[in-house]
């Protein structure tokens, strides 16, 4: 019903009952934000022969000049205006707020006696706060060259293509003039969806169960990989072919009953004995009889029915993995249809027609309002009598057009700009409040809810009183032999039962090793004292990469020995580089320690470990040249599904003191812990893109002055940190995938260093912190 109202042709309320020459005026309002208006629009139309008085556009039955609207009017004048030259058009700025402004695309004026059409191109704002601030403009008649300009044609076709050509969006934005109904569009969408489901299930029915792609994103037991998305997009392209055929079948249906154009209806209401002198039927291409609608709906039911039968028949045989892949492909195909295939189809067709089919008279938006029939509008007595009885033309005194003077326009502009500024402040506060809340959600969702509990447990478990009281080398060995070694092997239960199925677990029986623990020592060279000393000739300075000892020794730090030791003891006196160990520089409180060193691996039974540690103590593995001992553990808690990197750093200072520090870094190797986190990140990045768009517009407007604003750097900080976080997130994801694959292949019985993953996680945390910092300031 609302669509039919929009199609109506409205006689102007200020038509005089004695006027007998008619023009049709079609007004095209733009699709930009706040393009519609509630202000009163006035105009003066000028031709070679005459000029109209001030006329007013109005319709008592419906709202006119809405955003993206097309409004058609019939204007009566005493005689022909001749060849039209220009139209002066303005509004009185009487609308409230944004409803006072108006964006006019163009007008078409047609002489209903000669059927000659005149185009007036505007593409300008009639607003005190926009562009040049004018609310009155003179539009000259457009030449043939102007009507065929690329920008003008694209402007005409773009909105119509989206509102009518996009299968999904057109359900809501269908142009009133088209005969392709919303029910028919829903039917085509329904068919497209089921055909894509059918083609997807055909593919997965023929394919074998494949191993989960290493690049997949997992959400608990559900995962998505690029292959599923690509399959969904390709299938959607194939499904588009039958849906396009069905769309064309619906579009080309002829009406069952002959339709009377809105213009003819309006003229019949004015002049009941109207005669058509000449009828030029517009070529609409090949059409189908009205009863083809049964074929179209029958074909739709057939396609949907076959798809449902096949989906039920084959889908019940699918396992969980294939079902997940199938659902993922359906969703990716659905969204690609909305945001990829349909927009690409619209853009390509619009550009093609703009370049190669520049027909000035080919205006689909106006065709429903323009009828090529030539009417007999000569005056007769019967017409005048019928008007007295029932006429749409009533005698009215000339309407007074309210024209604002310069002072009033300036005042209105100031008031409107203040209003816009006020709303922009409120909108910005609201957007940034939402952004900051979303940023906090993204930041905290990056951490596992059990991470803090895991850290507290491991701290209480390892950092006992023996560890906290270490101040000498002997106390350090005592802690290793009597506390640490016992803690890293699962022992008997409290009731004396053996720890069955707990191989590789530490003594808390909840966390298991990924491989084994390592103890790495960094030493310095013994060198001559820099200052001559009468007491000693050699000195041991603080650690640096230049004086690090990288030589290999025999047990006891000798160059040669005749005694035989186990392999693990001998290797602990052999220097290994960071490349051999796959380790990186570690930052301590008193130095930055390289990734190489002398490494002892805690491998074997508890009794073997105790014996080896005792032997290392006897061989003075830690002496006055030792500057740091780093114990590294990589743990996995299957109950919390958390990996934890544990590092105990003991720094042996040149002053003789010992400084202890520890680090517990829990990590979750799932890319996203929940769908809620994924949605939050997607919305967050959409907001970042929105901020980028605002800043780019501001940069183009202010140029170098943009960098003189303090808030510009805050915005740049938010944008740069956010996009850097995306890169680091991908890096962490790939590193976690590598570790996860290695852990799965070896069942956790090979040493995996989590140091790099821990560093990447720290960088990501720092970036999130900077985002929160800049966001809070803003």
From TrEMBL:
Signal peptide, first to last residue: none
Subcellular location: Membrane
TM regions (residue ranges): 183-204, 229-250, 290-313, 333-356, 425-444, 642-662, 674-693, 713-731, 752-777
Gene3D superfamilies hit by this protein: PLAT/LH2 domain
Keyword Iron-sulfur: no
BP terms from Gene Ontology: detection of mechanical stimulus
Keywords from the UniProt entry: Glycoprotein, Membrane, Signal, Transmembrane, Transmembrane helix
Protein name: PLAT domain-containing protein
Source organism: Adineta steineri
